[in-house]
């Protein structure tokens, strides 16, 4: 009688490599077309992961040739921020506008996002744009949603008939992510972390809870794919929602934090900015 050893192959998804490919194509398009996109980022408060993303966005914009405008708001009122957005809506040098989320609790996030011109909504979260997606009138998904799809496609994961568990409490992100996955043939459920049965049945797990290490290897199906969107500043540095060490012993592939979802999200934001520039240019 022979003992069969359990063999497990794990592949860490290289978000930096995926992002570099996207950025190279953006740079090529900008050089060939002669256009100069402009991205305005409004940073409100002192959220550490948000600061990291803003720095990375600036670095990527400089790399591909997108003008980058940063507005740091610490003492400004909500009305002052809305006035700033109105100015940027009318600034021809700005193709795309984003408000870096999350915002401090004292601000009405939806009211501020609503102030952005839908035609300059680089993050894709304006209600008008979301409504068009949910109504099936548009497949121009927000960069974060495009990031998940791009990673899955890059890793040659056929989403058709796959079971997806989505762990997130975002009322904006969840319905659009579900719509995009279902358009690709996946069966998607928005679940809670405590729903052990649904987690164990999922071929793909997408987690965006902002709780470091909350998803562990014993909670997922063998050879599942894990896309970790969460990022939190801890004493150990920036950490994802997935406990990468234990996940890597069970999953077939997963995104690390940092170096997974983050770089691709930045690249897809720049792609969105380029698209907005092209859409606003006279034909």
Topology (elements, then pairings):
Elements: E1 11-12, H1 15-33, E2 38-44, H2 48-64, E3 67-73, H3 78-89, E4 96-99, H4 109-114, H5 127-134, H6 143-154, E5 163-168, H7 173-183, E6 187-190, H8 196-201, E7 204-208, E8 225-228, E9 232-234, E10 237-239, H9 244-247, E11 253-254, H10 261-280
Parallel strand pairs: 1-11, 2-3, 2-4, 5-6, 5-7, 7-8, 8-11
Antiparallel strand pairs: 9-10
Helix pairs in contact: 1-10, 2-10, 6-10
Poorly predicted sequence stretches spanning 5 or more consecutive residues: none
CATH C-level class of the largest domain: Alpha Beta
Structural class: alpha/beta
The CATH topology of the largest domain is given as Rossmann fold
Query: Looking at this structure, what is the CATH superfamily of the largest domain?
Result: NAD(P)-binding Rossmann-like Domain
Strand content: 15-25%
Please give the largest β-sheet: 6 strands, parallel
- Give the tally of structural domains: 2
The number of helical elements comes to 10
Q: Choose one word for the global shape.
A: globular
Give average pLDDT, whole number: 94
Alpha carbon gyration radius: 19 Å
In which order are the strands of the major sheet placed? 1-11-8-7-5-6
Helix-residue proportion: 40-55%
Order of helices and strands: EHEHEHEHHHEHEHEEEEHEH
Distance between the termini: 73 Å
CATH architecture of the largest domain: 3-Layer(aba) Sandwich
Q: How many extended strands?
A: 11
